[in-house]
Fold these 2 entries.
Entry 1:
Amino acid sequence: MKKKIDSTVTTFDELLEKKYGQHGTPSRDQFEADAEAFILSECLKAARRQAKLTQEELAVKVGTKKSYISRLENGKSDIQLATLRRIIEQGLGRKMQITIL
């Protein structure tokens, strides 16, 4: 069954506001946090696969458990910046750069 599209919504921002509320509301903040976790998890998964590593191999390289890598890749766990840097630099052999906008 297809969902009916609201013809009054003309932009993606309007769609987000209609579904999750204005910026700064609890439901919108949760949506944005979930979206950021999803993006990070997909980037980590893609980088691991590009490095031709299994979750187990990556976990061994960075001194953690496979289950933790799995939770990260599924967006089910928060990550500290130091751990993210260790995974990217030691585990994946890549460099991490942070940009604040």
Entry 2:
Amino acid sequence: MAFIVVIYNGKYNQLRNIYNKELVFICLSGIATGASWLCYYYAIQKGIVSVVVPIDKLSILFSIIFSYIIFKEKLTKKALLGLCLIVIGTLLMTLYS
């Protein structure tokens, strides 16, 4: 999908400037996203939605932890507050559904 957007915007000439390592991560990200959505819909089809959705929503927590540990990204107070609100909201949704 990202490549369709790039081509639509006429930026395909700039694809040559992307390093191979970055291109691999972009492709892996696309594959992981597609697989995630397939698994999500399969889980909803086969399981209880009130169990599947909170697990999916909490994936942001693991993404941020991963980026902090692996990529040494800094977590701002604003981002931390947003993450806490998402986690609290997800837990409340789980408890009261």
